[in-house]
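To start, one record:
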Amino acid sequence: QVQLVESGGGLVQAGDSLRLSCAASGRTLRFHIMGWFRQAPGKEREFVGSVWSDSKTFTYADSVKGRFTISRDDAKKTMYLQMNSLRPEDTAVYYCASGIQSTISVHTTRAYSYWGQGTQVTVSS
């Protein structure tokens, strides 16, 4: 089992930056992909970005490319999401997730077995 806890959310203004953290406990994440998803009110959970177990392969949603950056520190069992140039449309609950690396697309929730409880990010205009 893997337990994930997000932190770092909050209320910011458009153009500001935030860094979210995802702390993991339990089993090793050595062979896990890790990802970030978000869900706005009334909308489906959507993919934000992911990082493979090699810590070198990244995938980002088009809506966040160039603004958001994922990093992971397996020694600390922590993943980060650096969010710059935030926009009101980035407002959502942000979830981190992990799962055994497989052929399932990292864009889908099915690729992940473990989820955090989420942290709210609100961007005012």
Notes: The radius of gyration is 13 Å. The first strand starts at residue 2 and ends at 7. DSSP finds no helices and eleven strands in the chain.
